[in-house]
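Protocol step 4 of 5: obtain the predicted structure for the target chain.
Materials: sequence only (see below). No template structures provided, no constraints applied. The aim of this step is simply to have a reference model before the mutagenesis design in step 5. Sequence pasted as it appears in the construct record:
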Amino acid sequence: MTNRKNDHIKYALKYQSPYNAFDEMELIHRSLPSYDLTEIDLSTHFAKQDFDFPFYINAMTGGSEKGKAVNKKLAKVAAATGIVMVTGSYSAALKNPNDDSYRLREVAPDLQLATNIGLDKSIVLGQQTVNEMKPLFLQVHVNLMQELLMPEGERHFKTWKKNLADYAQQMSVPVILKEVGFGMDVTSIKLAHALGINTFDISGRGGTSFAYIENQRGGNCSYLNDWGQTTVQCLLNAQEMMDQVEILASGGVRHPLDMIKCLVLGARSVGLSHTILELVEKYPTGCVIDIINGWKDELKLIMCALDCKTIKDLRQVDYLLYGKLYEANH
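Step 4 output (structure tokens):
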């Protein structure tokens, strides 16, 4: 387990996506704004809660000493900047009660903390996770292609839908269904919504590729490294569901402009993994805090240039699509 968790960090840092669909979406600038910069409001709402900022640190790691060190840095950054942090899958701590890589309120008492577990885990284990972590919400991740490519991966999937229904109906905190970089399709969103799930992190291709990671760990299906749909394409595909469910976006988000593009396409908030991981590996914690606080100002700046006062207003922004993204949607 420890080696696998460390491998995930190592190869996640090494991988650079050959294509990012955010570069094929252009927002239409507005020359005559209606608002002062100080009037711009970054607050958003999902999973039955209000949040001051429309981005968060998405699930990454835990379950090893390296994972613990990364988590501590992330926790300090999240607490200092007032954004939510989601830990990596809690499965390692379920197997090892002595695992303290997820106990982050000890280093950051004011942390807005959420956690993550795989859909292969029963509601009993999910509730144990919630009892031990006391998270704002629980991400339940689906990582089918990763499991299929992982030598030690899961091979039984028929319980997943029943587990999801149990989570939707019985969990004591809000539940978010999350992909892991392959992109969630509309059929799956509709199916999960019918089971009672209301919030989805579509986590598209363009950032961390768990297909690449598992192939680096010994798999021989490198032709599947680019499996799945991009984050932008998933958001475009999910337009018909935007008013029925809450969509969160992650996967390949690099900076505030990418975040705004997600929000324009209807996302309630935006998750970042690889970008934040690179920052905490490269810079001192104080520097990362400054960068993320700077993002808040940059988000307001871009919203002002689009004549938008609120996150909801961004839904009305016009945009252009180019290249493969244009071809797929025309």
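Step 4 remarks: The CA atoms of residues 207 and 252 lie 4 Å apart. The mean pLDDT is 93.
Proceed to step 5.
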